[in-house]
Amino acid sequence: MNAQKLSKRLEKVASFVPENSIVADIGSDHAYLPCYLVLNKIAKGAIAGEVVKGPYESACHEVQSEGLQSQITVRLADGLQAIYPEDCVTVITIAGMGGPLIASILEKEVGRLAGVKRLILQPNIHAIAIREWASKNNWKIINEEILKEDDKIYEVLVLEPGKETLTTEALLLGPVLIQQQNEVFKEKWNHEIEQWLNVLKALEKAEQTKEILAKKKELQQRIRMVEEVLR
Ligand code: SAM
Predict the structure, then answer these.
(1) Which atom of ligand 1 lies closest to the CA of 104?
(2) CATH superfamily of 8-166
């Protein structure tokens, strides 16, 4: 992967960035995504935010070697602290982290989202944490994608300001993904069901305490719910 040729996962993230955006990519270890967006004239400017020094230096190096210093600013900062009001950021991308970490980055500096028109979030796991954060904070899921690359399954969530109440099914599986139910979606959730059944089997062998019984009940309900959706 490089700034000219992104991974399939980051290409999908890029595909949701509207033309003429000013993008902040948070957790931008090589700044490949902001460089790609500017090189392809999708973004007219970008911020690459990175909290760890080594990856921050890689991002600086990439921006310099592409000669994009006038359009891309690299900042060593924790989460949304990389963004200032005068940047007039319109789109934020956060990719390649767990859903709970992405949600905590958004939650920590929620005031810095003022004026932002779109969030494009790519959790590696637990997308539910983002959907829960979105419905509590008045962001609506306008699109979702699920894709497989190198045997790993990724979800991409696109959020815009707006109110939305999600069902328990939609929070876990994704309101748009449930409607589409592509092959990758089916593969992911059939695999999850298998894993949960294995956990259930292991719990059967344990002493049947109140906690174990409650955990079993919760798992059984979740399995039934996902099976219903897949049917
Ligand atoms: N976004 C790239 C991608 O999708 O390929 C890089 C993903 S990499 C696994 C996650 C990056 O996010 C790391 O470089 C890590 O240092 C950075 N990161 C984690 N927490 C962060 C935070 N609170 N603020 C900024 N960057 C963060």
Answers:
(1) 23
(2) Vaccinia Virus protein VP39 (3.40.50.150)
